[in-house]
Amino acid sequence: MKITKLKQKMTTLALGALLLAGAGCSSMQSRTVLHQDGPYPGVRSLGQNYPKADWGAARYPAMLIDLPFSAVFDTLALPLDSLD
Predict the structure, then answer these.
(1) Range of 76's domain?
(2) Domain count within the chain
(3) Rounded to a whole number, what is the distance in angstroms from the first to the last CA of the chain?
(4) What does the pLDDT read at residue 18?
(5) Which long-range contacts (CB under 8 A, 24 or more apart) does 26-29 make?
(6) How many angstroms separate the CA atoms of 74 and 72, rounded?
(7) What pTM was computed for the model?
(8) How far apart are CA 15 and CA 51, in angstroms?
(9) Residue ranges in the chain whose pLDDT is less than 70
(10) 70 is a domain residue
(11) pLDDT on residue 8
């Protein structure tokens, strides 16, 4: 019974992390909102996706948190980016 609760908590945590990563991921915003082409658009436009006026003091910590997620997503999407 304890293992089932642990699995349920881990699944919930993993889904929540995926939602948070996908919602704020610079790679997703670069592709959908900014329509940037080329390799690694999310990593290249981190500063543009986190404007200082909107984020204030939280800008740099948010960029540091987003950087690994954007790098992984951009790497996975590299074959699709090369088709453009």
Answers:
(1) 25-84
(2) 1
(3) 51
(4) 59
(5) 26/50, 26/66, 26/69, 26/70, 27/69, 27/70, 27/73, 27/74, 27/77, 28/73
(6) 5
(7) 0.64
(8) 27
(9) 1, 15-24, 84
(10) yes
(11) 82
Residues composing the chain: 84
Which pLDDT score is estimated for 19? 54
pLDDT given at position 24: 57
The angle subtended at Cα 34 by Cα 68 and Cα 65, nearest 5°, is 20
Integer Cα distance of 9 and 47 in angstroms: 34
Q: Could you tell me if residue 7 is inside a domain?
A: no
10 is a domain residue = no
* 53, part of any domain: yes
pLDDT at 20: 55
Please give the helix or strand (H or E) that residue 55 lies within, else none. Answer: helix 52-55
Question: What are the structure tokens assigned to 81, written together?
Answer: 């980016």
